[in-house]
Design a protein that fits this description.
- With 443 residues, the protein is an alpha+beta fold.
- A hairpin with a 2-residue loop joins strand 1 and strand 2.
- Helix 5 runs parallel beside helix 19.
- The radius of gyration is 22 Å and the shape is globular.
- It starts with a helix and ends in a 5-residue tail after the last strand.
- Bound molecules: protoporphyrin IX containing FE and 2-acetamido-2-deoxy-beta-D-glucopyranose (NAG).
- 2-acetamido-2-deoxy-beta-D-glucopyranose binds next to helix 9.
- GO terms for molecular function: aromatase activity; heme binding; iron ion binding.
- Catalyzes the formation of aromatic C18 estrogens from C19 androgens.
Length: 443
Amino acid sequence: QKHELVNDFRQFRDSPLLKIWIGPVPFLVLFHTVLNNPVHMDKAYAYKFLHPWLGTGLLTSTGDKWRRRRKLLTPTFHFSILTEFLEVMNEQAEVLVEKLDKEAGKGPFNCFNHITLCALDIICETAMGKKIYAQSNYDSEYVQCVYKMSDIITRRQRMPWFWPDLFYNYFGEGWEHNRSLKVLHSFTSNVIYERAEYIAYIESDSESDQGMRKRRAFLDMLLKTTDEEGNKLTHQDIQEEVDTFMFRGHDTTAAAMNWAIHLLGSHPEVQRKVQQELQEVFGVSDRPINTEDLKKLPYLECVIKESLRLFPSVPFFARSICEDCHINGFKVPKGANAIIMPYSLHRDPRHFPQPEEFRPERFMPENCVGRHPYAFIPFSAGLRNCIGQRFAVMEEKVILASILRYFNVEACQKREDLRPLGELILRPEKGIWIKLEKRKQQH
Ligand code: HEM
Ligand SMILES: *[C@@H]1O[C@H](CO)[C@@H](O)[C@H](O)[C@H]1NC(C)=O
């Protein structure tokens, strides 16, 4: 399935084929690279540093293990559970709006961490069924370590001399890495034990079923699920997946929402159109957002997609070619590594004329007709695509809608000030600086 994806690309991109060597590994870059510094793009290496934390969960596993896991996990993202998660998203959005309210009318501030902590609260509660109050309690050791770990891994990727373990342990951050790892693993491990006991208790006592039933979390489904032979996942299997969701499920959406806020803040006409759509759905009410509302926000959805086009949270990913094939007339042997870059792919003027312009209208259904299905791939494509994409879009809608219902946003940075850094996640170097103005209360 992987090489299909690669094969299809050549039909619409005729840039020269480029081969680069990363250490001993040759890589094909399928499109001219826009992101600077391709040195740390080796999938094997990029992902290697995730292994101590994530083990071989869905993101990092391959072959049969991946296939079995994916089959088990796909139902956990079913629509009915997403509806339950909507409640969590609304609650955390409310906390965020209260925090932002304190900044309103006061001049420029960096909203990056406010939004990231909100995303972290949402993923903790939906993945593990555990509230961590990241938005109100910065001191949580777990929260700090989630933050720190992404930084530590990114730094190591940037410094090839720290790739060998020996050097890393002696001269690098090996000690700090191990300390954070211990905090991360013992936290999720405890949550899993607690939750398993709770589920056993609920199941043994049918009367408590109505009274004290908690909201479901991904973890509950992982604890209950069985494969064809009736085998349950082990504690370690579950831990890998929970840690993967914690990592993959908040940084990505947080970055996406921040980029969208910047773009909305620098395009007042787009912002007004979103607010008009919100006005039509919610009127003067400040009620939470329900699933029906979500369907009535098509323009906001276009804004989300157009933001992901310009700033895809995952700026590149790597694949190995599974069969000999030809790309742009070059023979590519089986086993070659290819890098796919949504960041440059999304800027192909044949599919997106004047690609640097922010134009949500591009994603209106009538304007998508005839576009190549792989011209826009923020969530990757094919069998190995993002399992959390519906979750992600839903979260973005709830948070962005909540912000724009209460505030007008003004961006304080120009596009050239943003300096997107493309490592594991595409992030603005110095955060996202905005000004907020409270909208007139309508009642
Ligand atoms: C805007 C938000 C998001 C973006 C842009 C995004 C993007 C991606 C991309 C490009 C991949 C493929 C990576 C690769 O092949 O190396 C991927 C995989 C994955 N994503 Fe997401 N993602 C987002 C949100 C989420 C969320 C919210 C979750 C979980 C709740 C999630 C969980 C995963 C997992 C588990 C995989 C591995 C799937 C597999 O290999 O079978 N993602 N994502
Ligand atoms: C970190 O943990 C690994 C694996 O347990 C170990 O090999 C390494 O020596 C540790 N590093 C430091 C600096 O303690």
